[in-house]
Structures are given as structure tokens and as C-alpha cells.
Inverse folding.
């Protein structure tokens, strides 16, 4: 999966200048709206971190810099604008090159390893974790096997191998509700991301937006054959081994794992909600009334604006995505979208591996 997505010559993210025809995201449904709303969120984060100067904002998996450009543009007039130090982290060299052209005031790097440690930082990720490579684990009676890529009749095929200690620990913690023969995904790299976050800043707020849910939702009867899919030109396929590098491979995110990883890094999970509710708290409802006041507004223009809002907040569209806000040593009680009672999701949602 790592090769199919990230190989420098043949990987999905490197084979073409743009893969916009294969998928769309909250960033691409409107030229400015999503970034403007996240800039409002950063207003709250800047305050939560004590108004740091510089205000380091680190975007994980920034792609070609589209969201970075939206946020930097929306930062004009905000009190933290002159203190903003925006860093985009992107594995693809081609995407980084486009990002540097699109947002020359930001810094773009291939890895979190290149970012120096400091007192504070705000971390953003939009559809990062779903793109991290996964391992497939299948329940086999009272045991677990790992499905690995092999060959069968000159074609790629999944073959069972005995699961190692790490895979067994994950399955026992998060896969207790999976029926016999059921499949779950174990995402690689999560612990490493949080280790880097903890190294980069002593106090931090991390906002992760992705599709998925808690382990009880993702690793259970509803998705008993897993969630790994291949996307090409807006079409999904379960044949994830077909023509490697031609499709986006992605699996739903187990947010319980992110909550647990954050807790090990000393963070509190302040919010786990839907994107629709999160953007509503940030004022997306003000957008259409503002649009209606434009003197040159056409019916077609208004229809496009309304459709973008719908896509971002609808529970049948991007609004169903989950938003996880985690904080370490930050004052989070005034973050919009965070419940006043500061209800915190439980870190562990499966059986502990001991």
C-alpha cells in the first residue's frame, strides 16, 4: 500500500500533476469557505495556546497547498496574522513543489522530522490518517491472521500469515466485536505522528478531520469485511490490488486509536464530533446570508454556494466526517464546537491487551 500510494515514480500521488478527477475533499468543494472556517478555529486555538509569537501552524498531509493558501488568505486582518509561521508537511515532492508556488509565504517539508522543537504549535490534518498505509487482519476462530500480498496464477492476491505480536495486540484491543472471518485494518504510522507532535511542541492543539468512527463502529459487525477501498474517478472498488498506483487506497479511521495515541502523548480529547456540527459552531450558517447581499449575485452563483455549504455540513455528505480536537497543556474551554461540559470520549474502546 505504501508503494502503491507513495512510490516516487509509480505511486498514486506521484503519477499525475493532479488527482482531482479521482476524489474531492472539503478543501476543493469551494475556493475559500473551508479554509476561512478553519482560520476561525485557529482564532480559538491561538487563544488557547496563550497567543504565541510566533504562531506555528503545522498542516499534516498538506498536498498541493490548497488548504494552506485558503488559511493564509483568510488570516488577513486576524490578530495572529503577522505572527503566523505556516508549515506544510507533504510526502510527495511534486505536490510540495506546487505548494511552494501556490503559497510562497509558507514552508513546506517532506517530514515532521524536519520541524524544530518549540514551546507551542497548532496541528491540522484533513484526510491524513485515512491515507496512511494499513495492514489487514482477519479473525480466524479464536486467533488472528494477517492478509498479505502474494501471487496466485500470475495475479496479486491476499494470502493469510500468522499475525505478529503488534498485530495481535491491536486486534485484541480494538477488534473484540469482530465476528469469525471478519477483517479489520491496522493503520501504520499513527504512533509515529503523535511522537513527532509531542517532540515538536510542549503545548499543542491538534485538529484531525477524517471519515471513520470509534472502534466499536469501525471494527464490528457493520464493517465485518473491513473498509479498505480503491477510489478512481469518484468510483469505489473493493479490488484494491488491481493496477497498483492507479487508484487512491483508503480505509476508515479508527478514532479510538487516535484518542489513545494522543493520551499517551499527554493530550486530552476535547472533542469528537461531526464536521457538520463543527463548521456550524464556526459560523458556516452566516455564509449564505452574506452571499445574498452581493449586488452582482446570479442564480447560478448562489446555487453553487448553496451546494458547497450543503456538501460541507450534510450528514449524507462531507458533514458526516469526524472532527477530533486534542490538546496538551492548552486552555480549551473557549474552543468553538467543544461542549461546555468538556465531555471527553473514553480513550479505550476495546479490550485492553494487558
Amino acid at each position: 500500500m505504501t508503494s502503491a500510494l507513495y512510490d516516487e515514480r509509480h505511486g498514486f500521488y506521484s503519477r499525475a500533476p493532479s488527482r482531482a478527477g479521482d476524489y474531492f475533499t472539503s478543501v476543493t468543494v469551494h475556493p475559500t469557505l473551508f479554509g476561512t472556517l478553519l482560520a476561525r478555529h485557529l482564532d480559538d486555538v491561538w487563544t488557547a495556546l496563550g497567543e504565541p509569537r510566533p504562531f506555528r501552524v503545522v498542516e499534516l498531509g498538506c498536498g498541493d497547498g490548497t488548504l494552506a493558501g485558503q488559511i493564509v488568505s483568510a488570516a488577513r486582518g486576524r490578530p495572529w496574522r503577522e505572527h503566523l509561521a505556516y508549515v506544510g508537511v507533504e510526502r510527495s515532492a511534486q505536490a510540495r513543489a506546487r505548494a511552494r508556488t501556490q503559497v510562497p509565504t509558507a514552508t513546506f517539508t517532506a517530514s515532521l522530522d524536519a520541524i524544530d522543537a518549540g514551546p507551542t504549535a497548532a496541528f491540522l490534518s484533513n484526510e491524513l490518517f485515512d491515507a496512511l498505509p494499513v495492514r489487514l487482519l482477519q479473525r480466524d476462530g479464536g486467533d488472528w491472521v494477517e492478509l498479505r500480498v502474494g501471487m496466485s496464477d500470475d495475479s496479486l492476491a491476499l494470502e493469510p500469515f500468522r499475525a505478529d505480536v503488534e498485530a495481535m495486540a491491536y486486534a485484541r484491543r480494538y477488534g473484540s466485536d469482530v465476528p469469525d472471518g471478519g477483517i479489520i485494518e491496522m493503520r501504520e504510522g499513527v504512533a509515529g505522528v503523535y511522537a513527532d507532535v509531542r517532540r515538536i511542541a510542549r503545548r499543542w492543539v491538534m485538529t484531525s478531520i477524517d471519515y471513520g468512527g470509534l472502534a466499536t463502529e469501525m471494527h464490528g459487525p457493520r464493517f465485518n469485511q473491513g473498509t479498505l477501498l480503491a477510489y478512481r474517478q469518484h468510483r469505489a472498488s473493493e479490488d484494491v490490488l488491481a493496477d497498483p498506483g492507479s487508484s487512491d487506497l483508503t480505509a476508515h479511521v479508527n478514532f479510538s486509536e487516535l484518542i489513545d495515541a494522543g493520551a499517551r502523548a499527554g493530550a486530552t480529547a476535547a472533542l469528537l464530533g461531526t464536521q457538520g456540527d463543527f463548521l456550524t459552531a464556526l459560523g458556516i450558517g452566516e455564509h449564505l446570508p452574506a452571499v445574498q447581499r452581493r449586488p452582482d449575485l446570479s442564480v447560478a452563483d448562489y446555487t453553487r454556494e448553496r451546494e458547497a455549504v450543503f456538501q460541507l455540513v450534510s450528514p449524507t455528505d462531507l458533514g458526516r466526517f469526524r472532527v477530533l480536537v486534542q490538546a496538551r497543556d492548552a486552555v480549551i474551554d473557549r474552543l468553538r464546537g467543544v461542549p461546555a461540559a468538556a465531555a471527553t470520549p473514553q480513550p479505550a474502546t476495546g479490550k485492553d491487551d494487558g
DSSP finds eleven helices and 16 strands in the chain.
